[in-house]
Amino acid sequence: MHWLSLPMIPAALVALVTTAATARAQRPAPVELPHLTRLGPIPTDAAVMILTADGRLAKPSGQPAAPASVLLRIDRATPFTGVAKLLAQLQDGGTERVLFAAALPDGTEGAFTFALPEAATAPVTAEIRLHRHRAAVPATSVVPLLERMQKGIPDPNFDFTVAIEAPTEAEFEYVLQSLAAVRQAGIEAVMLREGERGGHRPAEVDGGLGALANAFGEDAATTAEERTSGGFAIDLGPLPWIAVSGRVLPQDRPAVLEQPVGCGEPVPNAQVVDEFGGGAGGRFGGRGRKVPPKIGTPIAAGLDWLTAQQNGDGSFNDDAGDPDVGATALALLALLGDGRTLHTDANLARGIGWLVDRQDENGDLGGSGAGSAQRHALATYALAEAYGLSNALLLRGSLVDAIDSLDRYRADDGGFGDATADASSTALAILALESAKFFAVEGELTAARIVGWFDALDASPTATPTTHAAALFCRHFAGMDPRTTPAMSQGAGLVADKGDVADPWCAYWATYGLFQTGGAPWKSWSPKLSALAAEQVGDGADAGSWRPTAGCSRTATTALRLLTLECYSRYTRIVR
User: Fold this and answer.
1) Which of 93-102, 299-308, 549-558 has the lowest mean pLDDT?
2) Are 350 and 357 in contact (CB under 8 A)?
3) CATH code (residue 530)
4) 252 domain residue, yes or no
5) Based on the structure, what is the number of domains in the chain?
6) 31 domain residue, yes or no
7) Are 140 and 75 contained in the same domain?
8) Does one domain contain both 225 and 299?
9) Is 315:324 a contact under the CB 8 Å cutoff?
10) Contact status, residue 517 vs residue 282, Cβ threshold 8 Å
11) 261-285: per-residue pLDDT in tens?
12) Rounded-to-integer distance, Cα 8 and Cα 50, Å
C-alpha cells in the first residue's frame, strides 16, 4: 500500500496537503519533555509527516513513496484518535519504524524511535492506560516497573511490546511523554490504541465480576472542561490494571545522543509464553476445590469481610489504620488460597499491584523498622503464588528481585530476621523460596540450605510450640520425609499435644505441618479447626472476621484464620 494514501483515515478527519509551503506553515512546535531528556538526532533520510491540531495531515514534497521510517511531527493538542489511526495505517502499510519529534527543556530538538509490530493486532506484553481518575502521575513513573518486567523475562529473544491506550480526546502531548518514558525504559516496540468509554475497556475476566469492568470507569458527572484539561494518571497492565504512584526519576544531563534513541528493525509478532510459571498443578493443584460446609461457609464469610476492608489503592490496613505490607500480603495469600487468580479477582489484582508499586529498586518489599524481614518474606511469598498461579509474566521481574533481596535479611547463623534470625521470618523465607522455585524462579538461596537452621532449636529450652510447628511445616516444604526424619515425627507429636490454636501463627503453622504429616497427629488436631471456625464473629460490622489476638491486627488475624481453614485445599499432601 502506498504510504501516503491513508484510506482508513476519514476524509472529515484528515485533509492531505502535499505542498512543501503548506507543510512548513503547519509545522507544529515540538512538545517539550520536561523529565525525559535523552533524545537522538533527527535523521535526514526519514520521510516527514505533520499532523496538526485540527486533524490535517501534511508532508513536504519530494519524499520517497515507500519509506522504511517516518518522522512524525505532531501538534501537542492533536486528539489521540488521529494519531492512533495514523500509526495503525503506517503499520498496515509496512512502515518498519516511526520517529517522534520532541524537544529538550533547553529547546534543542531531537527524536526517539519505535519499531512497529508486523500487524496492528500483534500480541502485547504490557499495556499502559492513561486516564483521569487519580492525581496526575509523571510519565516517568512507569519506567521502574517496565525495566523490572524486562529484567525478569528469562528468554533474551522474547519480544517486549507495549500498547498505550488513551481516551479519544486526549491531547497528544501527554501521550508523547508516555511514549518517551516507554522508550527510556528500553522498550523497542509500541502500539497505540483508542480506549473504549473514554479510555476504559471492559475487563476480560471470568467469574462474573461485572464490577471490575467499571472499576476504573469514568464518572458520569465529569464535565467537558475536566475531560480536556490537566494531566493523566497512568496504570500499567496486565489486566486488571496495576496502578503506579507518582515518581519523577533522576535524569541524565539533557542531551541529544549521536545515535537515534530506538531501534531500526521491524519487530515480529510477539509470542507470549502462557506458562512461564508452570501452571497451578502439583503441589498447588487442590485450590478452589470444595471443602466441607462447616469449613467452607466460614471461609466464604471471612473472605467477604476481608475484601470489604481493602483500600481503594489495593492495600489493607493495620489496627492503626495505616496501609501495611504484612496485612496486605496475608490477605492476598488468603485470596490466592481460595483459588483466585489475577485474571479472575479484582481485589487480588489491586493488592498485588500495590505491593509491586512499593518495591524498592533493590527489590525489597519490607520497608524499614521492626518486622521488615517478616514483611518482605510475606510479600515475596504472595508475589510467588500470584505469579505462578496466574501465569502472570509481568510479575516475574518483581519476584526475581524480591527473591534476590531476601539475602539482605539473612543472619550469620543462616536464618532470617531484622538484626538476628527468628523462626517466623526464617519459615516465611523458606515458603517464599520454595513457592518461587516451584514456578521456575530460583535464586542462589534454597530451602534445603536454610531449613537446617531449625536443627539448633529442636532441643533448645527457648523453643516454643510455634517454633516447632513452623519447623515441621518448613521441613515438609523443603522435601524432607517424616518417616525418615526423627525431628519431624517427634515434632509432630509435640505440636499436636502442645500447639496453641488460640495463637493465629501457631495455629497456622501447626495445621499445615500436621496436615502434611497425617496419621494420628492430624487426627488429634483437626477437630480444633471446627472450634476455630465457630469463633468467627457472626453479626455486626465485624461479621465474618475473627477477633484480634496475640498481637495481630483484626485483618491479619482474620487472614491467618482463613489460611488455616484453607488447609484442606491449599496444598496437596507433599509426602504420600
Assistant:
1) 93-102
2) no
3) 1.50.10.20
4) no
5) 2
6) yes
7) yes
8) no
9) yes
10) no
11) 876 555 555 443 333 333 444 577 6
12) 17
- The single residue listed with the C-alpha cell 534543542 is 108
* Residue where a domain stops, chosen among 217, 246, 275: 246
The answer to whether position 262 is within a domain reads no
What is the Cα–Cα distance from 320 to 509, expressed in whole angstroms? 26
Under DSSP, the state recorded for 118 is S
Q: Is 270 inside any structural domain?
A: no
Residue spans of alpha helices (H) in 59-139: 80-92
Tell which of 222, 246, 270 closes a domain: 246
The long-range contacts involving 545-550, CB below 8 angstroms and separated by at least 24 positions, are 545/302, 545/305, 545/306, 546/302, 546/504, 548/319, 549/502, 549/503, 549/504, 550/502, 550/503, 550/504, 550/505
184: helix, strand or coil:
helix
My answer on whether 331 and 469 are in the same domain is yes
Q: Which domain, by its residues, includes 467? A: 283-570
Rounded CA-CA distance 233/137 in Å is 5
Q: Tell me what the mean pLDDT of segment 492-515 comes to.
A: 95
Q: Using N-to-C axis directions, what is the helix angle for 325-337 and 346-357, rounded to 10°? A: 150
Q: Which three cell numbers stand for residue 535?
A: 469463633
pTM of the model: 0.79
What are 68-110's pLDDT values in tens digits? Answer: 778 999 999 999 888 988 888 888 888 888 999 999 988 999 9
Could you give the 3-state DSSP secondary structure of residue 154? coil
Cα–Cα distance, 31 to 172 (Å, whole number): 9
Q: Return the closest-CA partner of residue 493 out of 516, 473, 522.
A: 522
